[in-house]
Amino acid sequence: MQRRSFLWSSAAAGLMTLPQFVLADDDAKHKKEGRNNKQPSTSASPAAAVAPPAVAKARVIVIGGGMAGASVAKYLRLWGNTVDVTLVERNPQYLSNIMSSLVLTGQRTISSLTFGYDLLQSRYGVRVVFGDVVEVDPIRARVRLATGAWLEADRIVMAPGIEFDAVPGLDDVNLMPHAWKAGAQTTLLAKQLAAMPTNGVAVLTIPKAPYRCPPGPYERACLIADWMKANKPRAKLIVLDGNLDIVTEKDNFSQAFFGLHASVIDYRTSVEISSVDTRQMMVYTNYGAFKADVVNLIPTQRAGGLVASTGLATANGGRFAPVDVLSYASTVAPNLHVIGDSSATTQPKAGHIANQEAKVCADALARIFEGQAPDPAPVTNSACYSTITRTQASWLTAVFQYDPVARVMVPVAASAAASVGWKSGNFKQMNEWYDALMADTFA
Ligand SMILES: Cc1cc2nc3c(=O)[nH]c(=O)nc-3n(C[C@H](O)[C@H](O)[C@H](O)COP(=O)(O)OP(=O)(O)OC[C@H]3O[C@@H](n4cnc5c(N)ncnc54)[C@H](O)[C@@H]3O)c2cc1C
Description:
Helix 4 packs parallel to helix 11 (351-369) and helix 4 (67-79) crosses helix 12 (424-442). The radius of gyration is 22 Å and the shape is globular. The strands form eight sheets. It has a five-stranded parallel sheet with strand order 5-2-1-9-21. Strands 13-12-11-17 form a four-stranded parallel sheet, covered by helices on one side. The chain is built from twelve helices and 26 strands. The chain is an alpha/beta fold and 443 residues long. The protein has two domains: 3-163 and 301-442, FAD/NAD(P)-binding domain; 166-296, FAD/NAD(P)-binding domain. The structure holds flavin-adenine dinucleotide (FAD). Residues 63-69, 88-91, 94, 97-98, 100-101, 132-133, 159-161, 180, 212-213, 216, 304, 306, 340-342, 349-352, 354, 384 line the site of flavin-adenine dinucleotide. Flavin-adenine dinucleotide binds next to helix 4, strand 2 and helix 11.
């Protein structure tokens, strides 16, 4: 399989119809590099079992088994030949954030979003350790678990996702859930919405960018509005956006907010939350106070705590980790790599991109362990579907390629595209895309 193609494989099933999914062929170069036969064919098809190496060429510890961490662990085993991979994850199962807003409308269950680590172990020979990493030692390339045990490696890949800023007055997060990490908060928010009066008021807050899943809060607002029309006919949804304007897919979300859902959604921009009162259900802002029956408070975000405590979060005002996007090596500690939402790149913080970054990182590490340099011209793509109603979706896609002068991934102008409006066919494709992405990551 061609190197450029593998980066796209996760989208294959669901996005075949999107116009940008045509790739440059660098197969010849790949064959010359001798890596060609190590690429898996397509995302969703299970590979033959790969046994753990008898004698490891190199050892890698991956911290966090989410979209980025599970993907890098799998692809390091597929492409890294005899690389020994240990994945450390605090939870026994992964709950997918992607699609989790559909739990709020009763269209998905949490169990339909749950993925295990068994196949990473049995098919690919990834060693999975369930535990909490509490310290990373960049000098000796080792990590300490909450149990006190140390694990050593040659390289460490950090993929711990995000954490939230504290909000003044938020003394009980369950009274104003973010539901921005799928799980108990998601079902809780669903229950709170179901229990609100038919003429009730809900508030949804959107943090300042960069945050996890740029279209996510807007599509959640659309979903809730559509659900309210059927279930809470006189209810309102106030959307308090910390940004100057809709941050992505502006045409579609503007039409949805000010057209299709205008009777339900009251959209405000440049709103800064100063504090909340969970007893009175009040949200205090630079534009006054808002009282609500339900508050979906999505706070400002930063890299998983381990990234900051290791001293890697030096970008975006100390929130995220700057990396060399040829290998995702931290610019602060080059034997530590940071992928997924924790990294600071020009690409969106999204599960699809996390999977792509993981593949670039796995390929780079495999080359480094063979004494080679990383691919000097990586290409990634971002693909996203947004639910505008409970049955219709829009889409947005972009391709990023490495700019050797600026040393960042830049969007390829000709490749950027979004659907004009939304339709049910896109909703169906969204489910196919999701199944392919999750299979590429966990199966
Ligand atoms: C509502 C919603 C909808 C979304 N929709 C989409 C979408 O349609 N398309 C899309 O591409 N993206 C979407 N996203 C974004 C996507 O979920 C994230 O971008 C993606 O999960 C990031 O992957 P990650 O690996 O960086 O983090 P995560 O997937 O969050 O994984 C981090 C993992 O690290 C583990 N971890 C953290 N710290 C430690 C530690 N110290 N020790 C051990 N383990 C640790 C966590 O338990 C977790 O399993 C959505 C997000 C939300 C909230």
